[in-house]
Amino acid sequence: MLFRQLFDSETSTYTYLIADLATKAAILVDPVKEQVDRDRKLLDELGLTLQYCLETHIHADHVTGTAQLRELTHCQGVVPQNASAACADRFLADGEVLMVGSVEIQAIATPGHTDSHNAYFVNRDRVLTGDSLLIRGCGRTDFQSGDAGTLFHSITQKLFNLPDETLVYPGHDYRGHTVSTIGEEQQWNPRLANRDRASFIELMNNLNLPDPKKMMEAVPANERCGKVAVTT
């Protein structure tokens, strides 16, 4: 399996390129519109055929590159079940598996940051957590129908039930981390370690964070799979 972690510095977003080396079939997870040229160049250099653009959720901090990549490569756009994106080619429910050549990508429904969110368990040794579990943090829960109690359940009852050695690859990082493990986050994540549901909810409800800079642009665009509205 080929596995690459790519970074967008403006939004601190990670995009993941995963491919089967035998068939050259590839998938991009959470592509960023401003990085489409980078991603397309890398696909060409590695001789990969993009089959899917896969979203962990409807993003509020960046516009997805799926629309442009779909036009350029004829790949399919895939989003979590019940996501507000009628333009998607496919919706993935909890437990469903997407095969990319011989690479297995299993959806794990992890709502809470938004009301429709998936993590993706890749070949049973690493998990792409999107904005649910971050390294030493977690996604906020104060917009897009977020719910702190639901996020606590998703992380503690689903992600923390994966084997301790499972590698954790988040959707964002703001501190210079690239990868962690489930066991490490259980022990050291300050929003979760030694907290019960009530104290987690209290913490999350009092973060008082500013809205993402691109929220008013990104959410409606991503509900159209990354197509930005044309204004006249």
From TrEMBL:
Domain Metallo-beta-lactamase: 12-172
UniProt GO MF annotations: metal ion binding; sulfur dioxygenase activity
The protein's required cofactors: Fe(2+)
InterPro entries xrefs: Metallo-B-lactamas, Mito_Persulfide_Diox, POD-like_MBL-fold, RibonucZ/Hydroxyglut_hydro
Keywords from the named record: Acetylation, Dioxygenase, Iron, Metal-binding, Oxidoreductase, Transit peptide
Example GO BP: hydrogen sulfide metabolic process
Similarity remark: Belongs to the metallo-beta-lactamase superfamily. Glyoxalase II family.
Protein name per UniProt: Metallo-beta-lactamase superfamily protein
